[in-house]
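Anyone up for a design puzzle?
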């Protein structure tokens, strides 16, 4: 009788151990599959729409190139000949008319604000767009402090904001004024020829 009880206890304990090991492995497998699925995303895109009372709009593509991310922006509806601050913001939320729902600068490293010349800066600090005489800007920058959808400061699902004024690099957010366009960063359709 004693032997049977002991055996029952051992069986129960070993079964529960097996179960917890198995669910841990399943979780690890799930994490790996999840990570691999996102790592396969090599390009993301934000389509920017004007905030209330503004006419700025355009497209920004972010492409993972090894450890770096190449950013290519084509924006119009800017003030001709003027510089406009250009940032990734914390939230991919353009639901408010003034773009404030996108939150502050994307800053997972807890750094101070700066222009891209400085290595220590918010991950979202992409510098300035420079508008031509038609109010259009083409801007390219390659940065190493973010990833498209990887482990290092992933930007997928965050927001992109163009501001009314120049980012002068000052604290806390570059004195860049209002938000004239807002977009959400999503998975790009790379099958379409761009
Ligand atoms: Cu901004
Ligand atoms: Zn910043």
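Challenge accepted. My sequence:
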């Amino acid at each position: 009788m004693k032997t049977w009880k002991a055996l029952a206890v051992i069986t129960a304990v070993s079964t529960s151990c097996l179960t917890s090991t198995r669910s841990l492995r399943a979780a690890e497998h799930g994490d790996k599959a999840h990570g691999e699925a996102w790592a396969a995303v090599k390009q993301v895109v934000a389509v920017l729409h004007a905030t209330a009372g503004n006419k700025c709009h355009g497209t920004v593509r972010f492409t993972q190139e090894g450890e770096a991310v190449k950013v290519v922006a084509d924006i119009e509806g800017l003030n001709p000949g003027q510089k406009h601050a250009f940032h990734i913001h914390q939230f991919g939320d353009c639901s408010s008319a003034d773009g404030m729902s996108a939150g502050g600068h994307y800053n997972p490293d807890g750094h101070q604000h700066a222009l891209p010349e400085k290595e220590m800066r918010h991950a979202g600090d992409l510098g300035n767009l420079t508008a031509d005489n038609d109010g259009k800007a083409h801007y390219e920058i390659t940065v190493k402090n973010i990833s498209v959808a990887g482990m290092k400061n992933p930007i997928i699902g965050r927001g992109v904001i163009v501001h009314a004024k120049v980012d002068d690099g000052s604290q806390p957010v570059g004195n860049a004024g209002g938000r004239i366009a807002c977009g959400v960063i999503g998975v790009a359709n790379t099958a379409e020829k761009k």
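A detail worth pointing out: The two ends are 77 Å apart (CA to CA).
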